[in-house]
């Protein structure tokens, strides 16, 4: 293992290749594309949660200055890929994606009901305020607990025997009742919204010949291209999606949402390029959220601390019209060695918009509950929580009965505990105080599945010796371009400054969207093989020039030159090789994907978090004062950006644990926390120094670069570790997030 300290990460530590353009404002974000003739669209949204539109009064809005069009379900040009609405109109049945301006029905508060197109955004906003809608209101159901009796097996699961969301049992489903030491508890996480600083935005441009270009904030240009091509019945290549810079997304950009389709509709209807930017309030009803989820966990162990039974049941919220499923209970099947495990997952449809994936989707929710429950059982056993986890360490995947491709969670525990000085933890709560604050220690484990999708990359060496690498991947913040540059620089033996990585355009080589922590494992592998292929071509050309570089010799690349061996001092520059062969450029394009190893090994990222909190004994204020986070994600490609990603995940986890809560007023079925005054996220003053450590050992079975996903593992488990620390500080077990002061006094 490389020697690491938090301030001095090991050698692979490139600064962000796009850092300068981002901080100087030179990077163009979706709302910033200056297209000639651009006009502005603003959505008018429903003020009821369920019912239908009776009538519009548009007189005032239509005559307001600058208004070019008002689009509603009554005059919207049909979206060619959608079936014609039924006559008379019918409510969308469960399991249908929401279609904007399609029928008169209201499915949730904040649903777009009309769209103003005007010459300026200000005039569009003003006209939007003049739109009058009368509704036929129907009683709505938005209250989770009051409706939990209606939770059911998702339709998707009923239809698919092989669904990973099916009920699961290994061993004896009744084993819990016989365990010597038992706990049983219910855990609740409220709705939480991703709130990237950059709101979702799109500039939609139709060109001659029915060609569409969108500058759109999303997490996958190729999937957005596919979805828009399908909706507007266009050949894929007639749709281009451009999204090179993104101001955070956390999962909110994985799907194409109704506002994107609306902007494309508007641009078609007014025959002008249209810009649409969601207001902050609209971010709460337009681009999904982490669903309200209630979980029940029953854990049983022998007096020796050996787990005997786990039953984990989860109920998540979804909309009335569509199902969103996530891995709430699935991690429980895998994380510990336990002979008897049962999991069940249900959905509760409510009159709300559809949730979506939010960083660590399902796993962050599930591991809050499981890791809280593990802490509760450890306390019941009077056993150290880390020792309890080690006692139940899964040496192979207990769900699939397969060896791990690699697992260094034991090393993570040891390193994290050492750096945190876990040995100072007191078993009894309220045992330590400092400056009048109660001090507590908590820890949690985490895991996240390995995802690798087929990916392509192209590497081109230019006559000046520079290299451009391209792939239609994304960067929602982790620094994809920087990591890819590092991979290319490593393979080609070049200075990173001479490499340019291009992403975020649908015309680039096919790559998956940025989600599920899959970018480095998938696209990183493609970049690696494309650069290896380019290197091979270069060595072949060099071999034609000089015996020393002939195939089978020890030729190497470094400093942009080919050498006969590691010791050789007399190199041949890449540029000279091209020149000698009268080539302007040399290109290699490759695809990389998983093979048979997927069936031979179980592949996960692993990690653990150690948290210290201080709790004010009278006010219940919780301060996180120290965090040590440790992950085993195989090889670390670039320490500097990886470390930032881990820190960001921990910050998200602290927000989840202590602050984030989308509060709804159920009289109206409306969020009342729909701005940064109401929806609290951590600021710098809330965040202590976070120490990040990696095991940094390649997982040789997963892909050619030995690297697994980091984005989600960084947040999974953090909320549990905070809740466990709060218990250790106060003796109060808070099972409903967020842990706000009112719950502690
Ligand atoms: Mo992530 S929730 O897959 O952006």
TrEMBL record:
Residue ranges occupied by any Aldehyde oxidase/xanthine dehydrogenase a/b hammerhead domain in the UniProt entry: 24-139
Pfam families according to UniProt: Ald_Xan_dh_C, MoCoBD_1, MoCoBD_2
Protein name: Acylaldehyde oxidase
PANTHER family, per database record: DEHYDROGENASE (PTHR11908:SF153), XANTHINE DEHYDROGENASE (PTHR11908)
The organism of origin for this protein: Dyadobacter beijingensis
InterPro entries: Ald_Oxase/Xan_DH_a/b, Ald_Oxase/Xan_DH_a/b_sf, Ald_Oxase/xanthine_DH-like, AldOxase/xan_DH_MoCoBD1, AldOxase/xan_DH_MoCoBD2, AldOxase/xan_DH_Mopterin-bd_sf
Lineage, broadest ranks: Bacteria, Pseudomonadati, Bacteroidota, Cytophagia, Cytophagales
């Amino acid at each position: 293992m490389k020697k690491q300290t938090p301030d001095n990460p090991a050698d692979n530590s490139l600064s962000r290749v796009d850092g300068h353009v981002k901080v100087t404002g030179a990077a163009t974000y979706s709302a910033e594309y200056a297209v000639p003739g651009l006009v502005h669209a603003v959505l008018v949204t429903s003020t009821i949660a369920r019912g239908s539109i009776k009538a519009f009064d548009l007189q005032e809005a239509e005559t307001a200055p600058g208004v070019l069009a008002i689009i509603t379900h009554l005059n919207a040009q049909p979206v060619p890929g959608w079936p014609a609405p039924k006559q008379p109109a019918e409510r969308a049945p469960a399991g249908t994606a929401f279609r904007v301006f399609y029928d008169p029905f209201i499915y949730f508060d904040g649903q777009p009901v009309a769209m103003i197109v005007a010459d300026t955004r200000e005039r569009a906003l003003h006209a939007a305020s003049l739109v009058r809608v009368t509704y036929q209101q129907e009683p709505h159901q938005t209250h989770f607990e009051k409706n939990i009796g209606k939770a059911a097996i998702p339709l998707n699961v009923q239809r698919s025997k092989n669904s990973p969301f099916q009920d699961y049992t290994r061993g004896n489903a009744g084993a819990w009742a016989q365990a010597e030491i038992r706990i049983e508890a219910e855990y609740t996480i409220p709705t939480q919204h991703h709130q990237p600083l950059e709101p979702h935005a799109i500039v939609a441009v139709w060109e001659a010949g029915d060609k569409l270009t969108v500058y759109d904030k999303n997490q996958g240009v190729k999937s957005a291209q596919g979805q828009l091509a399908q909706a507007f019945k266009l050949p894929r290549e007639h749709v281009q999606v451009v999204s090179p810079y993104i101001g955070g997304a956390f999962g909110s950009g994985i799907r194409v949402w109704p506002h994107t389709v609306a902007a494309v509709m508007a641009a078609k209807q007014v025959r002008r390029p249209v810009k649409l930017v969601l207001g902050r309030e609209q971010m709460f009803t337009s681009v999904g959220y982490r669903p309200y989820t209630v979980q029940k966990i029953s854990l049983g162990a022998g007096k020796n601390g050996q787990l005997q039974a786990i039953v984990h049941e989860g109920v998540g919220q979804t909309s009335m019209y569509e199902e969103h499923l996530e891995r709430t209970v699935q991690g429980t099947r895998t994380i510990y060695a336990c002979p008897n495990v049962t999991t069940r997952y249900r959905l509760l449809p409510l009159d709300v918009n559809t949730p979506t994936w939010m960083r660590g989707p399902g796993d962050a929710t599930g591991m809050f509950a499981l890791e809280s429950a593990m802490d509760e059982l450890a306390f019941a056993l009077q056993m150290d929580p880390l020792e309890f986890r080690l006692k139940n360490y899964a040496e192979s995947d207990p769900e699939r009965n397969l060896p791990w491709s690699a697992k260094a969670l034991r090393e993570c525990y040891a390193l994290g505990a050492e750096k945190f000085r876990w040995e100072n933890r007191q078993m009894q709560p309220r045992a330590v105080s400092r400056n009048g604050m109660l001090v507590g220690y908590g820890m949690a484990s985490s895991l996240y599945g390995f995802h690798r999708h087929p990916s392509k990359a192209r590497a081109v060496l230019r006559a000046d010796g520079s290299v451009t690498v391209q792939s239609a991947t994304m960067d929602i913040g982790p620094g994809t371009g920087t990591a890819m540059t590092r991979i290319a620089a490593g393979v080609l033996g070049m200075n990173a400054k001479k490499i340019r990585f291009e992403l975020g355009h649908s015309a680039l080589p096919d790559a998956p969207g940025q989600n599920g922590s899959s970018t480095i494992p998938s696209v990183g592998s493609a970049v690696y093989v494309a650069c290896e292929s380019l290197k091979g071509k270069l060595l072949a050309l060099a071999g034609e020039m000089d015996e020393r570089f002939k195939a089978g010799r020890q030729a190497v690349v470094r400093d942009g030159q080919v050498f006969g061996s590691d010791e050789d001092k007399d190199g041949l520059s890449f540029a000279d090789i091209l020149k000698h062969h009268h080539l302007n450029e040399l290109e290699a394009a490759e695809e990389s994907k998983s093979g048979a190893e997927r069936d031979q090994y179980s592949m996960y990222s692993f990690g653990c978090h150690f948290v210290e909190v201080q709790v004010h004994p009278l006010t219940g204020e919780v301060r996180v004062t120290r965090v040590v986070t440790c992950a085993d994600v195989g090889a670390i490609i670039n320490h500097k950006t990886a470390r930032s990603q881990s820190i960001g995940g921990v910050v998200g986890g602290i927000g989840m644990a202590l602050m984030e809560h989308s509060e709804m007023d159920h009289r109206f079925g409306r969020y009342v926390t729909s701005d940064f005054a109401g929806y609290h996220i951590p600021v710098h003053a809330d965040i202590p120094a976070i120490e990040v450590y990696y095991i940094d050992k390649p997982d040789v079975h997963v892909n050619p670069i030995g690297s697994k996903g980091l984005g989600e593992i960084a947040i999974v488990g953090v909320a549990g570790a905070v809740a466990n620390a709060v218990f250790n500080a106060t003796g109060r077990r808070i099972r409903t997030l967020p842990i706000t002061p009112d719950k502690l006094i």
